[in-house]
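Hey, resending since the last one bounced:
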Amino acid sequence: MPGSIPFYQKHHRHYDRDYRSRETESRLSQYQSSSRYTAGSGSFTATGSRGLKASSHSLLDESRLSPIPKRAKPTYLAVDKENHIIGYVVPVFRSSQEFGAGLSDTEDVRARDSAAYMARRDLFTSGLEMERSELISRREAMRESANRISMSKRLHEHGEHFKRMNEDSLMHPPKFVIKPRSHTVWEKQCVRLHCTVSGWPDPRVVWYKNNVVINPYASPGKYKLESKYRMHTLEINRCDFDDTAQYRVSVMNSSGELSAIASVVVKRFRDDVDEFLPSPRSARISDGPVSEYGIKFKTNIVDTFGVSFGREGETMTLGCTVIIYPALHRYEPDVQWYRDDVLLSPSKWHQMHWSGDRAMLTLAHLNKEDEGLYTLRVSTKSGYETYSAYVFVRDADAEVEGAPGAPLDVRCLDANKDYIIVTWKQPAVDGGGSILGYFVDRCEVETTHWVQCNDTPVKFARFPVTGLVEGRSYIFRVRAVNQSGMSRPSRVSEPVAAMDPADRARMRGTSAPWTGQIIVTEEEPAEGVVPGRPRELMVTEATKNYVVLSWKPPGEKGLEGVMYYVEKCVSGTDTWQRVNTEIPVKSPRFALFDLAEGKSYSFRVRCCNAAGVGEPSDPTEATTVGDKLDIPSAPGKVIPTRNTDTSVVVSWEASRDATDLVGYYIEGSVVGSDVWEPCNNKPVNVTRFICHGLITGETYVFRVRAVNAAGISQFSPESEPVEVKAAIASPAPPYGITVLECVRDSMVLSWKQPAFVGGADITGYFVDYREVVDGVPGQWHEANVRAISERAYRVCDLHENKNYQFQVRAANMAGVGIPSLPSETFLCEEWTIAVPGPPHDLQAREVRNDSLVLLWKPPVYQGRNPVNGFYVDMKEAEAPEEAWRGVNRDAAEKTFFKIKNLQEGESYIFRVRAQNQAGVGKPSDVTEPVAAETKPGTKEIVVDVDDDGVISLNFECGEMSPDSKFVWSKNYEDFSDTSRVTQETKGNKSKIIFNDPGEEDIGIYSCIVTHSDGASSSYTLSDEELKRLLEVSHDHKFPIIPLKSNLAVEMLEKGRVRFWLQAENMSANGKIDYIFNDNAVSQGEKYKMNFDKNTGVIEMTMDSLTPADEGTYSFQLQDGKATNQSSLVLIGDVFKQLQKESEFQSKEWVRKQGPHFIEYLSYEVTPECCVILKCKVGNIKKDTSAIWYKDGHEIKSEQSLSFTEGVLKLEIAQITKKDAGMYEVVLKDERGKDTSKLNLTDQGFKELMNEVFSFIANSSTPLKITSTDEGIRLYTFVSFYNDLLQVTWHYKDSPIAFSDRIKSGVVGEQLWLQITEPTEKDMGKYAIEFNDGKGGLRRTVELSGQAFDDAFAEFQRLKAAATAERNRARVAGGLPDVVTIQEGKALNLTCNISGNPVPEVTWLKNEKEITSDEHCILKFESGKFASFTITGVNTSDTGKYSILVKNKYGTESGDFTVSVFIPEEAAGKKK
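The structure tokens again:
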């Protein structure tokens, strides 16, 4: 239990001082004496405890209390009565005292601080020698203590060894060295019970609460048991009323048993305490290192869940990220979740999860019971941290429209063998009609069959359920009903068993403390004994629906099978009527229904068993049937107060004389809507509640109802309207105090605006200063009495060469905030440096993804010369100091600068340096880190010119607070001439209007929104932009009807003339004046006018033009105040041309009355290079004739003429010069005649051929390279070749001069260029150009590199092959295939032989070589003639003969067959 006084105890009258410990009393006496010392007393006394005294006061005494007269250096050594050091003293209640001291009054703290500084300064010199001597004595004492501890350790080890060697002789019963002490604590605090025990063997220690063994595993996080070095501790976390009990510690060993008792009383705050403030934090577990790890943990809860809203049936997950430093692998803290300070355990409704760094609580299937304040508690060995937020649960949509919400918090009370009382809480939503009552349903556990317990609805929120089966478990639910229908059922209750309470207690109970003896008792039930009278019969509950009786069994024990009969009697009569006539009840509880409301009854009970029915009990007093519990009265005055921009704090006066109050329901409504919505769906039992989920800026009223079991009260009076916006608080302290200038007797300070302004504009600042002498600060003095609006101030009346500290406080309409931390110590001496001082008050505006605008104020200290420029430096926020870099090379003249080319998402810091002629001064203080990112919903200033020509700049802010304002400026300064612009603001939009735009208005206009997330923008009005806007403004002031087309003239059929224009936007009320030579003309025989309002086309037509119509035509338009005019001048040649055209069109119309040409004769060249002459005719009949002529001669050929779909065609397949001439087509019938001619001579024929040549050129293939035995050939193919086609071959962009070596030609559709015997000089770019009379077409190919090498190699190969083919050995002819000859005849065959060199000749017979002899003479003469002669053939000469010629280029053979016959054989064959 902490010994210090928590801050929340000091402000309550009911605080009881009797519970304080001696340490606490000692500390309070020290504090009181220190307070007297501060007031003027010069004495201070420190007291000790338990025979020990500390050698100096604690850290709290040193820092917060007045100093003692004697110099004493703080130490924490413990000494005994002989002043021998025996150990260390850990200062008790340090953290609590520091916590309490930190919340003490500011003036008291200042007084004690000042006194402490003065005392230390006075004692510094006198205590130096004393400190040295004390240091020497301390070393000696430490050395003696170490020797003593070493000796004690040796004695202890010797004693332990002796015990182990001779245990029996040392056995002794347990003994309390220190007994546990009783404690009184506040609710939600922690308490520890300590005791120290001796005994051998080591005693076994068991803790009891009201004689029930404490099991820490049964209540995780509630109890913690520790036993170390014979000191035993019971820790109870977050005490509540249930923890008020008598705690007993039992110690036992084989030699005996001993117990000690301590009481714990838990108190609760009343009236002044806000139930929704965070729970008071108890003293941390030891601030020292954790024994398991040797370190101290620091816990932070981040990424928390906020106020959450859910609906019944949904699933919600709450989560927080927990950061524990240092992070240890596999270390898991103790994570607990609470709802309304009640520890939650895992169940089907609540699932807890810990992922290593995130704690999550999942609420499955939300019900209104889940509404409440949820608290996450994370405990480590070094302490714990908590976080809380409220969860609201709304009703699910009703199954029947208008039905009420479901009841909630169904519980079972007073469970007996066949009887259970079910209670619940009424819903906040009644569906628009009053609730008629409730139905209670029951269901046996492990079944799904629900049974309705009451036939008629009960209005009382409590109902006794009877008829249960003993030993079975049940769950219950409740449904509400009104005139519209039935609500959804409530969440089911916890299961409860129908059994005797004594049996249930025995099942739940734990065995008695161990005493070393086991006693077994047995009692046989008495048989044949009629039970006696029941005892203490009373009416425990009476309503108009039922009455509940309770009693105690008869005093006799050991009776067999006792049951009960209940009897009733109407008051004033003696007639008793048994209620349960059929089955007696087993429980000593009974509920009676169907009693007449308003009548009085008496009741009595009889016991019965197998032996008979006993005597009745004493009757109860007369009880009138009716509700004994009244509906609470309406709560009193309701007071709403602003809290946040989405919540309001509602407080009210409690219901008077309310009995068994369950809580309150709060409802809110937007003013004027008359629609009330519940703010809570679970009753709250306090008179103050925070209503969340409201709409910012709306005005609400609130009302409250009280709830108890009897029903819901009437509504309280409605509250005063309150607007939902953040409450105003005093601002946080300013920070960053720096010196801008210093002279002999004054200093100019600057500081930064507080991070939190309290929800209202800061109205000013107050500066305090104090002198610092030898490091000891003096008293604070006010530097200004009136608040200053600027964040810079000159503090005067200072002393030169003195040191000063400063502090600043900010003020708004809520008051003056707490002062800032004291600044650094500044020396007041005149600055003489030549360069300027630092700029100040740096601000970042218009922050975007890649740019921002930096503003600053010039330095107060100018140096020797005026400031003539500024330099801006920047670096990434996390970058080292070496990363500072300049933004601008040239000094900026203004006190603002736009910084561009930032990296999106990166954080930067900035500083500014001023320069004069002497150089650049020191930099300003750096800005806070600024992230380069465009906030969502950011808007830019938009320029607008309205219909009246008014120029304005408009800015819209998406997210504004109720206190936000638009602040406009020019060149980032206040408007010097406010008459030039007018500012208008409406809602979240603001604009400035230029009253008389001119050159004086050129500049940068910016707008910033206060109390927003940096919403700002700027617009640069340049000279060019101003001129453009003035032109637009003039157009809007003097509007012009826009025209899609100006006045134009066109020719219609019959030679009619049409004047027309088209207006873009013109209403039906528009007016048009038609003017000719400044005279208005009107509708008549000559002029026809028309205005098409749908299309905006305005036209005027004339049948013909005469010389009198030459002049100027105008259309004058007017639509409201918008006007326009368009004119057309028709004079001179223009008019004559138009008149001529009119006459021509008139004649054309006459011509078209007979057969005529719609399209005159023309030609078309097809892709096949065919020429088609064609014309389109109209208005023809069957007897209309069409005759073609060329050069005056009729064309008779029918094959080339065609007439389809009104088109006459003449096809010329392959055009030549012969086809040139004058072509003519004549149409005629009885209605008239029309002629069309086409001149295809000279230039006309040339143009036609050029088009043909163009088709030929476009059909040509890319120029390719091939090789022949003569050289290299370049060629292309065309789809059709005409002899008139002119092509030109180029080599290196120059025409080729043809020769015997380089030739060109045409073969069919191939055009080629032959290069005979090519050399490397022929390498280069070749092209063929087709001349079509226009640009021509050129195909090119590059004959060089690999292409030339490949072609040249192929040429060499082909050339060699041709040479070989030409010179190889050949048998030119002369040999027959077969020779038939008569035997004896001579055979002579001769053949020609060619080849170079001369071939070798070989003759073969039947594949065998033969040589020349007398019979067969073989000759080869002149290298050309080979002869074969057989002088006289015989049958042996028959066979196949071959001649084989061969030289180096090849071989060739000639074959013939010789057949020799005998004349007689031949004759025989003929026969």
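Confidence is low (pLDDT under 50) at residues 1-79, 84-106, 270-293, 509-524.

Sorry for the duplicate.
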